[in-house]
Structure prediction request, 240 residues.
Amino acid sequence: MTAPTRVVVHTDAVAVAEATAARLLLAIIDTLTVQDRADVVLTGGTVGIATLESAAASPLARQIDWTSVHAWWGDERFVPAGDPDRNEGQAQAALLGSLPLPEENIHRMGASDAFGSVEEAATAYADQIASAGVPAWDVLMLGMGPDGHVASLFPGHPGYEVRGVEALPVHDSPKPPPTRVSLSLESIRRAKRVWVVAAGAAKADVVARALHGDLSLPAAAVRGSAETLWLVDAEAVAKV
Prediction:
């Protein structure tokens, strides 16, 4: 079962980030009232990182027992640790570094200076998911590129079609850097809540195509079992 898509429109990118941050923190609070831990998949990108910065500044963040929260990633660039292209470094600076979040709760995807190949890094992340016993992500956030990609699943790229794994290696990404690790579509669709976060007129064409069900676009295929939200600004839905 998957949840139907709902679209929430905000005035601009700043409003998208601020509202999504509040929504994220409330979802974590709600989750921890009914279970012992919350597993959250973070995203990068301009609006994604702005969302994390807004979350760090919110008074709601102080109401959360962060020792019960686990942070994961939808994708990562297979470059050395500390490289500015890595999503995890941006998230660390925007949010994670300001929280009392235990290091063992931060599940970073492997870097190129720690693994001999991207295949090894993807396998290690899949093993980490399995060993953590995550039945389903509680919240999984995704940015969306102007080509309709989410995580590192690109239209027409072999990774979009991969099944039967939690995480996969990505070669020859249409967007640099070319080598990455990504959650699979199956793993994404295992989430309880899937949120696609997008803003700006440059996304308008592809937002319209995705919301009208063009499954050549990975963004059109993502769903959550309990909730599927597109959190967008007015410019991004101008052509829907």
